[in-house]
Design goal:
globular; two-stranded antiparallel sheet; 280 residues; mainly alpha
């Protein structure tokens, strides 16, 4: 990596870190960051999926995904808003279709499918406020599950890069991501599992004896890291079909928002499962 590329990446990191810090301040900080990520990722996902399936609406993607967050007011209010937004979206599609010519139906359907695909793809972002609200220590620690999730994902990403660069020989997914190696994947997952084992006793009581907490952190760390790597490859699949090198150039040296959160999109649900099992 050239000096200029490293400088650009450093500048991008300076933009990312404050946003990550705000996400650790529930509920308002986490909600604000979640809304920001949804709106920015919706724009990038719509561009990619428009090239893949022929259409997607960034406004409707963002509206459908933001609407469940209004559950922070009351669950009933959030449910009503979400149902209303979905009905408005479907109604707008039906209304357009009812007055369109036969030749104009194809792009309408493609827009519908692309929008729904983006909603499914980005929907795990709505789990971030739930993770931030969980406090297994019961002492008001700032979003321990978010801290644990970010530590696992960032370690897996950095470990995969460093190990892959030093020892990588066999390509993991030559078509989707030529730079990824099997050795890098294994190294990143193992490093993330080790970090999970080290920090779990500091963040969680776990309801288990002290000596078993590192093992819990290791096993779930391995699972979350594996999900993170798969999420990265999923975005690579969409970008490859779309013929895009990156989701956008919004973040200097890092690409787009989707290029930074792709791992979270599968890692967050696995982390939520861990949190629910811990509570159970």
């Amino acid at each position: 990596m050239s000096g200029s590329a490293l400088s650009q990446r450093a500048i991008g990191s300076l933009l990312i870190l404050p946003v990550a810090a705000v996400s650790l301040v529930p509920p308002l900080g986490t909600l604000a960051v979640t809304v920001l990520l949804i709106c920015l990722a919706a724009r990038e996902a719509s561009r990619i999926l428009t090239k893949v399936v022929g259409g997607a609406s960034p406004r409707w993607i963002a509206a459908i995904l933001v609407s469940p967050l209004t559950s922070a007011i009351t669950p009933a209010f959030g449910a009503m808003v979400t149902i209303a937004v979905v009905l408005l979206f479907v109604g707008s599609i039906v209304l357009r279709s009812s007055s369109a010519s036969a030749g104009a139906l194809d792009p309408i359907v493609r827009n519908l499918l692309g929008t729904l695909a983006a909603v499914v793809w980005l929907s795990p972002l709505t789990l971030l406020p739930l993770l931030a609200a969980a406090d297994p220590l019961g002492r008001g620690a700032p979003a321990p599950w978010i801290i644990w999730l970010l530590a696992i994902v960032w370690t897996a990403d950095s470990g995969a890069y460093l190990v892959g660069r030093a020892l990588g020989r066999r390509r993991l997914a030559p078509i989707l991501s030529p730079r990824k190696s099997v050795e890098g994947f294994a190294g990143g997952v193992l490093a993330a599992g080790a970090v999970g084992a080290l920090i779990a006793p500091l963040l969680f009581t776990l309801g288990t004896p002290d000596e078993s907490r590192p093992l819990w952190g290791l096993l779930w760390g391995l699972g979350v890291a594996t999900a993170a790597e798969i999420g990265d490859l999923l975005e690579s699949l969409f970008k490859r079909v779309a013929g895009a090198e990156s989701a956008s150039n919004l973040i200097p040296g890092h690409g787009g928002v989707l290029d930074r959160i792709d791992s979270l999109l599968l890692a967050a649900p696995v982390t939520l499962v861990a949190a629910l099992l811990l509570r159970g």
